[in-house]
């Protein structure tokens, strides 16, 4: 996977492991309930921000809440 990334190829990785995601990614798309919450630069996002997006608590950098009641 890393070899392909280093060759400039696109690699799609689905994982719940934040350390793995942050160590191999350039960009991260967070999906919650089938909806892309945000696409962020891996170098500028924190583990806490990613975790909150993964839980559906916030929508990306705008901080807009995602409907969690239903």
Short description:
Helix content is 29%, strand content 19%. The protein contains three helices and two strands; from the N terminus they run ααββα.
Number of domains: 1
The overall pLDDT, averaged over residues, is: 82
Amount of helix: 25-40%
Q: What's the gyration radius in Å?
A: 13 Å
Q: How many beta-strand runs?
A: 2
The biggest sheet amounts to: 2 strands, antiparallel
Strand order of the biggest β-sheet: 1-2
Q: Provide the structure class.
A: alpha+beta
Low-confidence stretches: 62-70
How far apart lie the N and C ends?
37 Å
- The number of helical elements comes to 3
The H-and-E topology, N to C, reads as HHEEH
Strand content: 15-25%
Q: Categorize the overall geometry.
A: elongated
Give a written overview of the molecule.
With 70 residues, the protein is an alpha+beta fold. It has one domain. It has 3 helices and 2 strands, in the order ααββα. It has helices at residues 2-6, 18-24, 47-54; strands at residues 27-32, 35-41. A hairpin with a 2-residue loop joins strand 1 (27-32) and strand 2. It is elongated.
